Amino acid sequence: MSGDLHCHTKLSDGTLGLDELIALAAKRGIETIAITDHDCLAGTVRAKIIGERSGVRVIPGVELSAMDTRTGKNVHILAYLFDSPDRIEGLCHKNSAARKKAGQYMMLKAAKKFAVAPELIMKCAQGSTNLYKQHIMHALMQCGYTMSIYGDMYDELFSREKAGGIYVQPRFADVFEVLQAVKDAGGISVLAHPALYDNFDILDELIEAGLNGVEVWHPTCSKENEERLISIAKQHKLLMTGGSDFHGMYNHGTWSVGDYVTPKQQLSELLGYKTKMKRQQKKLAAQEAALAEG
Fold first, then answer.
1. Which of 1, 4, 213, 242 is the most exposed place for a label (fewest CB within 10 A)?
2. Are 242 and 267 spatial neighbours (Cβ–Cβ below 8 Å)?
3. 3-class secondary structure, 117
4. What distance in Å separates the CA atoms of residue 78 and residue 38, rounded to the nearest whole number?
5. What sign for the dihedral angle of Cα 84, 89, 95, 99?
6. Which helix H or strand E contains 55, and what residues bound it?
7. What structural domains and CATH numbers belong to the chain?
């Protein structure tokens, strides 16, 4: 039994609702998924109930936006199986507010650059808890300015370097603050798509700060980087996960739920990780108590 542990819905920047995503997973024979909407826990309880009805195990998850504030690089942390969601909610609200502010600036810039109404962009974002770049591109498609979400126009508009772009970087929480929040919530932290944002330079520091795992199997990960991540994970005894980073029509390429997965052994290790850690902590506490008595 493998599992797709990286899926998005309409609640963030996907195009399928919770019901539709879980139905698709069931139809494709995927027994386990994690819904990891950006900075959003809104669908966690409902997704589990829908999953039980459809024969799909839905692991509680979220993709937390973060930054290495020293370099300005984006760093995304996948959090799973948290005991206290309320410990993450505050961080989600903080990140969501930052994204919303940046999204509104980008929407106004797009409306100045093209004859596109902000109301149409907001309509494309209907059902989402925020405003994303894909919603702006969707509106531009509807107005006939482009034939696709991604391509030359997307690259020009949302590049940090190119003049005439509309991109505004949200001020997300520092990645070390995010890791601490996941730890406080009793969750498992996994570095999402390390190769996508070239986060290899900060990986050692993240591991030292308590990172539990790395996402190895992902559409943007080359075989070379996959092998590199497996080597790092084995060296530091990290969990390894995988997922399709599914966004429906807003995918960066042609793939579906379950095309990239966490293999059976690694999924089992993730699901049993917290129990294993608790056993180790009890054993260590018993050893320390015995030493104190002796």
1. 1
2. no
3. coil
4. 9
5. positive
6. none
7. 3-85+173-293 (3.20.20.140), 97-157 (no CATH)
Residues with Cβ within 8 Å of 87's Cβ and at least 6 positions away in sequence, in order, are 181, 184, 185, 186
Are 27 and 53 in contact by the 8 Å Cβ rule? The answer is no
Token code pair at residue 207: 């591991």
Q: Determine the Cα–Cα distance for residues 118 and 132; give it in Å rounded to an integer.
A: 13
pLDDT at 6: 98
pLDDT of residue 294: 62
Can you tell me the distance from the alpha carbon of 180 to that of 193, in angstroms, rounded to the nearest whole number?
20
List beta partners, residue 57: 32
Cα–Cα dist 5/246, whole Å? 10
- The one-letter code for the residue type at 112 is K
Between CA 142 and CA 148 the distance in angstroms is 10
pLDDT score at 286 = 67
Token pair in block for residue 64: 């937390």
As a whole number of angstroms, the distance between CA 66 and CA 32 comes to: 26
Q: How far from each other are the two terminal CA atoms of the chain, in whole angstroms?
A: 47
Task: Provide the H-helix boundaries in the chain.
Answer: 18-27, 44-54, 86-113, 118-124, 133-142, 152-157, 175-184, 203-208, 223-236, 264-293
Q: Are 34 and 25 in contact (CB under 8 A)?
A: no
Q: How many whole angstroms separate alpha carbon 226 and alpha carbon 184? A: 30
272 closest CA partner among 59, 50, 56: 59
